[in-house]
Amino acid sequence: MTIRVLVADDQAMVRAGFRMLLAGEPDIEVVAEATNGLEAVAKAGRFTPDVILMDIRMPELDGLEATRRILATRAAARVLILTTFDVDEYVYEALRLGASGFMLKDEPPEQLIAGVRTVASGDGLLSPSVTTRVIREFTRGHRPSPPAGLDELTAREQDVFGLLVRGMSNAEIAAALHLSDTTVKTHVTHVLQKLRVRDRVHAVVLAYESGVIAPGDAAAGTSPA
Q1: Angle in degrees, 0-180, between the axes of helices 109-120 and 12-23, rounded to the nearest 10
Q2: Between residues 184 and 168, which one has the greater pLDDT?
Q3: Which residues contact 178 (CB under 8 A, 6 or more apart)?
Q4: At residue 215, does pLDDT exceed 80?
Q5: Residue ranges covered by each domain of the chain
Q6: Poorest-pLDDT segment among 58-62, 125-129, 217-221
Q7: What pLDDT sits at residue 210?
Q8: Of 198, 98, 195, 214, which Cα lies nearest the Cα of 148?
Q9: For the chain, how far is it from start to end, CA to CA, in angstroms?
Q10: Is a pLDDT exceeding 60 seen at residue 156?
């Protein structure tokens, strides 16, 4: 199945770069480009992409509001924010609005391609080089409270949740808890359902906001497997 991608960025060179990068992948197709947020919203509705690569700072409508509008009408859309360090606060807000994750624009090409596939598969993605910084900064001053659904988790699901939000992949969790990969995947699914979050990214945000993880603890990673 081909992953349909919309690239939204006001810089022509950036859009061209992503198109060239993704054009070499047999399972990925760039179906549209947008030069601003309004165009991104319109083309997301017209072309129904699976993944939207969204810049934050764009004219007419920024990527944050564009993300909100797109997800308000197409909840299944997967928005991957492309950013630099100087817009971290907007990235955090985008995650809270339902974006599926973020990456730095200067990540290695293979990581960007893998990121598109990760997000398209229905999982979330956090760039490990900026995750701790973002979440530490924007949960500062927040009064923690237990997340809804936490008391519904079994003891084993709580173990899995604790390792998941510290960035462990399913394989690493399986090794740490002496479980099979299949069993871990089942536990992860149940954890996300009970906590009412759409993917691992939002489980991490929830964990920091609720105090399950304190700033300074191990960072969350990117691997979904």
Answers
A1: 80
A2: 184
A3: none
A4: no
A5: 3-127, 143-210
A6: 217-221
A7: 73
A8: 195
A9: 20
A10: yes
At residue 53, what are phi and psi to the nearest 5 degrees? -85, 110
* CATH of 143-210 among 3.10.20.30, 3.40.1440.10, 1.10.357.10, 1.10.10.10: 1.10.10.10
Tell me the average pLDDT across 39-47: 96
pLDDT at 139 over 70: no
Beta-bridge mates of residue 79: 52
With tokens 């007419």, the residue in question is 60
- Report the amino acid identity of residue 130: V
**Structure confidence by residue, pLDDT tens digits, 25-37:** 999 999 999 999 9
Best CA proximity match to 2, nearest among 22, 26, 35: 26
Instruction: State the burial class of residue 192 (Cβ atoms within 10 Å of its Cβ: 0-12, 13-18, 19+).
Output: buried
**Residue 135 CA neighbour count, 13 Å, CB half:** 34
Distance CA 80, CA 91 (A): 10
Pairing between strand 78-83 and 51-55?
A: parallel
Euclidean distance between CA atoms 144 and 195, whole angstroms: 16
3-127 belongs to which homologous superfamily?
Response regulator (3.40.50.2300)
